[in-house]
Amino acid sequence: MSQSRILSGMRPTGKLHLGHYHGVLKNWVELQDTHECFFFVADWHALTTHYEAPDTMGEHVWDMVIDWLAAGVDPEKASCFVQSCVPEHAELHLLLSMITPLGWLERVPSFKDQQAKLKDKDLSTYGFLGYPLLQSADILMYRAEGVPVGEDQVPHVELTREIARRFNHMFGRGKLFDQAVDAALGKMGKKAKNSFSRLRQTYLQDGADSAYQQALLLLTEQQNISAQDKDDLKAYIADKGRIILPEPDALLTKSAKMPGLDGQKMSKSYNNTIALRDDPVRVEKALRGMPTDPARVRRTDPGDPKKCPVWSLHQTYTDQKTHEWVKRECPIAGIGCVDCKQPLIDTVLAEQKLIRERAEPYVKDKVQLIQVIKQGNERARTVAQETMARVRDSVGTRYDEL
Ligand code: TRP
Ligand code: SF4
Questions:
Q1: How distant is the alpha carbon of residue 42 from its chain centre?
Q2: What region, left, alpha or beta, does residue 333 occupy, with left being phi > 0 and alpha being psi -120 to 50 degrees?
Q3: What CATH class does 277-364 carry?
Q4: Where are the domains of the chain?
Q5: Pocket test residue of 86, 153, 247 for ligand 1, highest count of atoms within 8 A of CB
Q6: How far is 193 from 184, CA to CA, in rounded Å?
Q7: Nearest-CA residue for atom 4 of ligand 2
Q8: Residue 176: CB atoms within 10 Å
Q9: pTM, rounded to two decimals
């Protein structure tokens, strides 16, 4: 359980494609073996731009979570949940909004970019401006250390760090913190407490780093104090405030250079995708129809893989030997494009077969899918409630009497 925590989310856009798989999902699947992972469906984020499509939301959520599981996300290792099933996200978003300067949100690049891009939608809403702050709440809720995201999301993680810093600065000191420190010190034995205070004094007065290390060591030896107490006392040694919401790091996901069926970047808006669980007959036909180096009009025309989107797919899918074969034979017209595509088609279909097999139990039996999400929701809520207890405590909205 001392594994560091990872959180990431996706808006429910429905069925995912191979670009998502090689870009994002394979990365998630790797992380789940080494980290405590939370992956969630950002349905409220979807509403910030697609508030007019309530009918399709549910279907999109199911399809997307099935795709996660099909890609190899293991519900025993990673918790998959739905944002709106953990309403604490909304509360944290609201509380953070109290201390978020409007300018911080207005200068997030995606704000103006998306407004310009989605011109047919009215995005001059309160909710849309708050998009990155809601994302900050998502992240800070789990006190996540790492947030795997694509490049476009890095400014959002950056904002999250700034918000966390501001929140800790505003609420990490003061009467509540002093009381918490006193209470924690009170739980230590008299002797330990005295040495601790002496070490702290030495550290602060003389800048003796060794005293800091010794004080930390002393803390780790204490049996009676909680992890929160330890964190508070650690901050107290250095005369710092409490870290209520730790600052996360963005874990930049390398973008998979996955061309779509027309050679442009694979994207739903270009209508050029291969879905993760696409029909094999369609996939084969689509790959056979893919454009190649335009110079190869006839079988005897030499080609250049660098000018060919099929070659880009080979990079992701086929092995070194195949690459060499293509690089050697294409420029001398030793192979035709039909030959060249065959090993690619075989590998894609083999991969998709596995993916479809992993999806099958959930497609057949929705109850199983629901179980996975319910379990994820519960695990998420447990952490969220812990965080919110600390946050409410910090901002003063805690009324044990009520
Ligand atoms: N904004 C993200 C995207 O569009 C989705 C998202 C919402 C997210 N909350 C998050 C990603 C928290 C990482 C962490 O891809
Ligand atoms: Fe592209 Fe392969 Fe045809 Fe060369 S042989 S143009 S790499 S599909």
A1: 10
A2: left
A3: mainly alpha
A4: 5-171+246-256+365-395, 181-237, 277-364
A5: 153
A6: 10
A7: 330
A8: 16
A9: 0.91
Same fold flag, 5-171+246-256+365-395 and 277-364 = no
Could you report the per-residue pLDDT of 111-154, keeping only the tens digit for each?
888 888 888 888 899 999 999 999 999 999 999 999 999 999 99
Residue nearest to atom 6 of ligand 1 (CA): 9
Q: Are 133 and 93 in contact (CB under 8 A)?
A: yes
Ligand 1, atom nearest to 144 Cα: 14
- Per residue in 170-209, pLDDT (tens digit) is 999 888 889 999 999 999 999 999 999 999 999 999 999 9
Helix, strand, coil share (%) of the chain residues, nearest 5: 60, 5, 30
Residue 276 to residue 358: CA distance in whole angstroms? 11
Edge-to-edge strand ranges of the sheet holding 36-41: 78-82, 36-41, 5-10, 146-149, 249-252
CA-closest residue to ligand 1 atom 15: 10
Separation of CA 281 and ligand 1 centre (Å): 33
Closest residue by Cα to residue 180 from 390, 401, 372: 390
What's the CATH fold of domain 5-171+246-256+365-395? Rossmann fold (3.40.50)
Cβ–ligand 2 contact at 340 (below 6 Å): yes
Q: Is the CB of 137 under 6 A from ligand 2?
A: no
